[in-house]
Amino acid sequence: MRWTALLRTSTLPGALLGLFLLLSPGSGQAQSKTVVHFWVAWDPQQADAIAAKKEIAAYEQAHPDVTIDVQNITYDALHDKLITAVAGGEGPDISWGLPEWFGELYRMGALMDLSGFEQHWAARPEIYPNVLKALTIHGKLMALPHYLGIRALLSHADMLKAAGIAAPPKSWAELIADSKVIHQKLGKPGFGIAGTGVRAPQELIMYLAQNDLAVARPTRDGKYRNTWNDDKAQLARAAQVFAFYHDLQASGAISPDASGWGWEEEDTDFALGRYAMAIDGPWMESREAQNPKEMADVEITAPPTIRTPATFFEINPFYVFKATAHPQATLDFAAFLTGREFQQAVHPQNSPRMDVHSDNKWGRDFMTLAASGVVFPPVPLAGITRDMEDAIGRVLLRHETPQSVARWLGQAINRDLRQSGELGSAS
Predict the structure, then answer these.
(1) Residue pLDDT, tens place only, 131-144
(2) Is residue 332 part of a domain?
(3) Per-residue pLDDT tens for 142-193?
């Protein structure tokens, strides 16, 4: 007999009646909610974070049996905290992350195989095919797309015009020449780079791809290898990339302080009009809102190149962890995060969905570059990206020759691959 039926047909003392009410399945006190732990790295004051919190609150209201426990951690701290927590069995159910962490988390065995989920994933037909490919390892979907950080050349058109430059540069040579003119006529650097931090290797991989180079290529044995030192032509092209960094500094195209800049300095100084051009992403729309006067003249074009059009295709993932105690609730929430409603509200400019887009320049002008995007290989990248950052420093701070830096970096990448068990055969 159900508890409620017994209560309707019985006359019970008050204390016993209270006990029945406490134990009744219909009582809110007896019901427990499923808690999905979600780690994020948003700026709570930005529009995307405000929209995301509103959407998550609506999701909880529509799913009264689920609570989304959001923990906000800065990107600088998120990686180490995530790796430590996952290794200790105390990680979240689902988390933001950078694409550079993909291979590391996969090799740890931390990620859920989403192949089964993919078969019933409503969003799948709307996701850019190259995004799905980048999140697939050995034929298995191992992460879900969060947002895209496609890079373009941002130019202060008024500064270019004041320097007598008719259009943004299309080649490395034009970029250096134009930057020299801007510096001479306006007294400001023409270009900005990130010499340190997470963005430095992201910019470097783009320049390498523009010269038909990869950080590491797949090998026949299913692993990866840097091949620059196996091929004189590749090594010469790698040296050209580091010569480009050298020339940016030697010509005065970049600020003398740029070797120490991270993404904060690069973004802030461009937003304030302290230099003319930068390779940057659609998140700069928020800087436009903060600095409408200084950003009013910004134009968006393809990055200058040397051989092949290419840009960094930052596919920021949602990492779903196989250790979750609530796989179905976690996957349902993941499906919501990749759904059209959430993406349209939170990422209208940079969604991985083909049916979510914006007609303003921060959406349209970036998404036209998606086909030329390049990504990091799916291997543990901590050592590789650190060495890429070090290589930039060897050119800009230690003034080593581009040839020696190219040779050193190719060797260092293969050393890192060997240490992670991912170094493939040379043949």
Answers:
(1) 999 999 989 999 99
(2) yes
(3) 999 999 989 999 999 999 999 999 999 999 999 999 999 999 999 999 999 9
Query: What are the two backbone dihedrals, phi and then psi, of residue 143, each rounded to the nearest 5 degrees?
Result: -160, 165
Does the residue 12 lie in any domain?
A: no
Residues 6+ apart with CB under 8 A from 198: 75, 98, 100, 262, 263, 385
Residue 426 lies inside a defined structural domain of this protein: no
Q: How far is residue 190's CA from residue 416's CA, in Å, rounded to a whole number?
A: 35
Q: Both 367 and 397 in a single domain?
A: no
What is the tally of structural domains in the chain?
Answer: 2
Tokens of 188: 């400001």
Sequence-ordered list of residues with C-beta below 8 angstroms from that of 202, at least 6 positions apart, any chain? 151, 194, 312, 314
- H or E segment and range at residue 71: strand 66-72
Task: Give dist(CA 55, CA 145) in Å, integer.
Answer: 17
Closest to 298 in 3D by CA, of 97, 118, 160: 160
120, 99: one domain = yes
Quote the pTM value: 0.81
d(CA 228, CA 411): 9
Q: What stretches of 135-229 show up as alpha helix (H) in DSSP? A: 157-162, 172-186, 199-210
Apex 328 CA angle, 326 and 330, nearest 5: 65
User: Cα–Cα distances in Å, from 95 out to 59, 79, 81, 330?
Assistant: 17, 10, 11, 11
- DSSP annotation of 94: E
Which residue segment(s) compose the domain that 294 sits in? 152-313+377-419
225 and 287 in a single domain? The answer is: yes
